[in-house]
Amino acid sequence: MATQTMSPSKAAIIANPVANPLGYQTFAIGSFRFERDQYFAHIHYPGNQHIMPVDAFLRALMRDVGWGFFYGTVNFDHVFGTLNHYGTVEMFIGMFNDAFRKAHRDFVENFDSPDLRKVFEAMLDDWTNEGFDPYAAPDETGLAYGRKHGSNTKALKRQRMVATRMVGLPGDLGYRTDIDGYPVNRQFTDVPQDLPEIHAAPGFEGQVHAFNMFAYVSRSDVTWNPSVVSCVHDSQFCATTEEHALPIMHGNDRVEWFIQATDEIIWDVDDKNTGAPRAKVTMKAGDVAAMPADIRHKGYSPKRSMLIVWENNDAALPRMYSRGELKPHPVEF
Amino acid sequence: MGGYHTVFGSLDHYEKGGVQVIDADPKHYCFSNCFEVASKSKPYEKVAVGKNLKYVIEAIRAEGDSPWYSNAHDEAVLVMDGEIEVHLLQPDEPLVPEGKEGSVQLDAEPKGTKMGWVKARRGHMTLLPKGAAYQFRSAKPGVMLQQTILGDFTIQRWNEICQTQG
Ligand SMILES: [Fe+2]
To answer: Which of A169, A194, A285 lies nearest to residue B121, judging by beta carbons?
Structure first.
């Protein structure tokens, strides 16, 4: 039976300080309780429970935490996820799963974003073992399994990088360099690191500006984690490196666009609400495509590739799309 | 060790993916390829390949000297192929009224102070700062993407550039 709490749940956040026999803490907020064992995350909610492989769970959790619940829906899998209302956030079971909805087996609870964030951050930190980096591609990192051993807090605390005008401008987001701990990724060693020639007349230094964006992206130490490189008001170019699979299915609350800068990504596109398959979109270098506001998508990148996710950051958009004031697709032709 | 080959596109060689429809209208995905668009464009046509309400991304074939442009907000260009110079000039008086959106093409090189220039190659992104006038120069055909707002000089021909059939 679906339960919709209209005001954010104020239920106490209980992190059981007594670890289970494997060494992991149990976390609870509202009516949800989270437990992990060697291989799995167990999500308990009133009357039932859900299970996910713990590596997939932690990779999804990392994005949800790192992005501050992101735009719209972060589906950890076909059942569990969060829906961002920008200040509050809904945590749900089966809310975007046709079978769960029809059988009234869906469950949703509303939280103040900082409260859920606190629980998610603590769970991510406690459940991530030494040697496992949920932001890294599977080939670059160790395993998440087993009894609790060590931690990887530093890897979890990476800040999302956001330029306010453009990377490299005075006072704006800086470059990634070897010295700062951003070497060129092993799969991008053939990406030219040359600099644009800048000939600024005296007095115009800092206004005549260019940087090697592909080189900047080749040095990203994370996957599936867009960072803003340039802005025109609310138009944001968010460049990211993708390898293996997007750990979530992103449900759009607005239109977003993809510009495939290098290599290839294959996207599964499903209906945002029901999960029914809609399309497969294969994107190669130079391809540009829209992701409509009524879909969810999951990408597969066989080789590490560069993707520019192009976002419209206008905060009024989710409401306009949900009310039907805007069509879910961007262009009529 | 090694053995990874990063695939870029260019005017001379690009491969295009596409939308494989299961239950959708391919037009909703506005699927195009910037190299294909530029290969069919006249020099410096500003062809929208992305549009998110008022914001656009224009695919531009750079070849020879462009007209001069100005703006009333920041813009950016990302070179996808070739070697393109961006010449910047601070006009003596504002050329575009405050609040005007998009790139504004000028009739001629405006009077002003030379700010300098950038030579940009593939992957390089150049700022076209608010209020500046700018001109592109490209000895050989190149391709760039311009991040800007829909303006009087944006060309929309979606039916010609996008996949329309599943
Ligand atoms: Fe997305």
So the answer is: A194
- The answer to whether the CB atoms of A204 and B75 lie below 8 A apart is no
Question: ipTM above 0.95?
Answer: yes
A143 within some domain: yes
Q: Which two tokens stand for residue A84?
A: 């961002």
Where residue A5 falls among pLDDT bands split at 50, 70, 90?
Answer: very low
Q: What is the reported pLDDT for A1?
A: 42
Please give the share of chain A, as a percent, with pLDDT higher than 90: 93
Does A257 sit within 8 Å of B4, measured CB to CB? no
Identify whether residues A48 and A99 lie together within a single domain.
yes
Same structural domain for residues A103 and A217?
A: no
Nearest Cβ partner for A212 among B31, B51, B123: B123
Contacts 24+ apart (CB under 8 A), A2-6: A2/A101, A2/A104, A2/A106, A2/A107, A2/A108, A3/A31, A3/A46, A3/A107, A3/A108, A3/A109, A4/A108, A4/A110, A5/A30, A5/A108, A5/A109, A5/A110, A6/A110
**B40-161 fold:** Jelly Rolls (2.60.120)
Structural domain containing residue A226: 186-322
| Number of structural domains in chain A | 2
Q: Using CB atoms and an 8 Å cut-off, which of residues 251-310 of chain A contact chain B?
A: 254-257, 259-264, 269, 276-292, 303-304, 310
User: Which stretches of chain B drop beneath a pLDDT of 50?
Assistant: 1
**SS3 string of A110-156?**
EEEHHHHHHHHHHHHHHHCCCCCCCCCCHHHCCCCCCCCCCCCHHHH
Q: What is the pLDDT of residue A18?
A: 77
Where in chain B are the domains? 40-161
A271 domain-assigned: yes
